[in-house]
Amino acid sequence: MRLRSSKGENIRERTFRFGVRIVKMVNRLPRTAAGFALGNQVIRSGTAIGANVEEADAAESREDFVHKMKIALKEAQETRYWLRTIIEAELLVDEETQSLLKECDEIVRILHTIIANTVKINR
Q1: What is the mean pLDDT of residues 70-86?
Q2: Which of 43, 46, 57, 82 is most solvent-facing, going by the fewest CB within 10 Å?
Q3: What count of Cα atoms within 13 Å lies in the side-chain half-sphere of residue 70?
Q4: What CA–CA distance (Å, rounded) separates 107 from 84?
Q5: How far is CA 8 from CA 13, 14, 80, 110, 114, in A?
Q6: In this predicted structure, what is the pLDDT of residue 122?
Q7: Is the entire prediction scored with pTM above 0.70?
Q8: What is the largest CA-CA distance in the chain?
Q9: What 3-state class would DSSP assign to 107?
Q10: What is residue 58's three-state secondary structure?
Q11: Residues 78, 80: Cα–Cα separation, whole Å
Q12: Among candidate residues 69, 84, 73, the one with its CA nearest the CA of residue 108
């Protein structure tokens, strides 16, 4: 199953690039208790999005595909929460962090659409 957004962009590649950007952002967090704790959370959820999309692409059935995409969606929503926390706590407020939050919002919307369209096809 090829995973592409309406613009033809491969969601697998997009979520992979997002994960790489998350790793780079975490490396810039302050070396404080809060920086380590939030960095650990956001790196786990932010890189899990792409890993679950990758698994969905190799799904054994449509139901398996939807299940894995729902996990990716949950990870994206969690990542959005941690990014908002990092920004609001003023641990790292810059253009890149704001851009990551915007990209995460877009990924959440794309995953919602993929899931909804796949479920609709099943009916």
Answers
A1: 98
A2: 57
A3: 9
A4: 15
A5: 11, 11, 24, 12, 13
A6: 60
A7: yes
A8: 51
A9: helix
A10: coil
A11: 5
A12: 73
pLDDT beyond 60 at 2:
no
Contact yes or no for 7/70 (Cβ under 8 A): no
Contact in structure between 50 and 15 (CB atoms under 8 Å): yes
Are 52 and 89 within 8 A, CB to CB? no
d(CA 64, CA 67): 5
Residues 6+ away with beta carbon under 8 Å from 95:
none
What CATH architecture applies to the domain 11-122? Up-down Bundle (1.20)
Sign of CA dihedral 6, 4, 16, 47: positive
State the virtual CA torsion across 41, 46, 51, 52 in degrees, nearest 10: 90
d(CA 109, CA 76): 10
**Residue 17 is encoded by which pair of tokens?**
């690039």
